[in-house]
Amino acid sequence: MSRSSVRLKDIADKTGFSVNTVSLALRDSPRIPNETRQLIRKTADALNYLPNHIAKSLVSRETKTIGLILTDITNPTLTRTAQAIELALAERGYGTLFATSNNDPEQEIKALEMFRSRQVDGMLIYPRSHRRLDHIRKIRQSNYPIVLLVGDPDAGIDAVCVDERRGAYKATRHLIDTGHKRIGIIDSANPLGNVEKSDGYRQALTEAGIAFDPKLTADPLGHSVIKGYWAMDTLMNAPNPPTAIFTANDSLAIGALRWCQKNGVQVPKDIAIIGFDNIEFAEHAATPISSVNYAVDVVTELAVERLMKLVVAKDGLPEPRVTQIEPDLVIRESTTGRS
């Protein structure tokens, strides 16, 4: 008998119990004696029985699944986030369906449609653009539980996230406090309208009385190590190169560090480098890299907790709430020890 064709009646026929008794036993009902439950479960296993979750969801109107949409699964921070979310949801009895937009707006929309068609109970989303959210806002306004993993306080959508603006400000301020005035930034987010890190960088410069110089900015056109390498090449071959660099993620910082190693530039003596996310590779780079810590466990736990509250809201969703977590700096050799 195939796995998909086994019914409760088949187990009932095999064991001699009623369908109702079998159903209660497989749900571990205390109404059924333990010996009977064990016999029925053993028979169900022998027949390769699987519960019909589709039928259950039609009755309960719950699928016990959550959709998770990320921009790039190769991003180490998002990989850690996905793992933490899956574990947090599993502890609450939910399964996780994954999708990746690959920073493509059409793929993001398709993922949203796919999850809705599968009737997931809610969604956690790391959107491609932090500002262009009309397609997500429309779903939320239809009373559908959604929590973003980046936050715009005025988006009208629940969000739990690291305060990227504050993190970039702290990173730049650290470079200023260690004596730097020509501070470059490697950040590919601006074309998407994700201006938080750039804003934080500029704010720190302004407060220190340092004029913003567009020649010290580089768009790496991506987020990988090699993109950071070539962005660093552009900045360091300018007529008046920077003495310090802030990068929008640690992969870019590792690429910048690799450029320095290949070109005989000493870090931090000749140039300081600080990244964002505090991934494992940053700590174990040839020169350990300072970084802004992305508190994965805190973000995921609060995001899942908020989503669960939205999922069980029976009388309409509450007003959207945005929770921003202030990040700490992790200072390592790439920005200290300059002589």
UniProtKB/TrEMBL annotation:
<keyword id="KW-0238">DNA-binding</keyword>
<dbReference type="InterPro" id="IPR000843">
    <property type="entry name" value="HTH_LacI"/>
</dbReference>
<keyword id="KW-0804">Transcription</keyword>
<keyword id="KW-0805">Transcription regulation</keyword>
<dbReference type="Pfam" id="PF00356">
    <property type="entry name" value="LacI"/>
</dbReference>
<dbReference type="InterPro" id="IPR046335">
    <property type="entry name" value="LacI/GalR-like_sensor"/>
</dbReference>
<dbReference type="GO" id="GO:0003677">
    <property type="term" value="F:DNA binding"/>
</dbReference>
<dbReference type="InterPro" id="IPR010982">
    <property type="entry name" value="Lambda_DNA-bd_dom_sf"/>
</dbReference>
<feature type="domain" description="HTH lacI-type">
    <location>
        <begin position="6"/>
        <end position="60"/>
    </location>
</feature>
<dbReference type="Pfam" id="PF13377">
    <property type="entry name" value="Peripla_BP_3"/>
</dbReference>
<protein>
    <submittedName>
        <fullName>LacI family DNA-binding transcriptional regulator</fullName>
    </submittedName>
</protein>
<dbReference type="InterPro" id="IPR028082">
    <property type="entry name" value="Peripla_BP_I"/>
</dbReference>
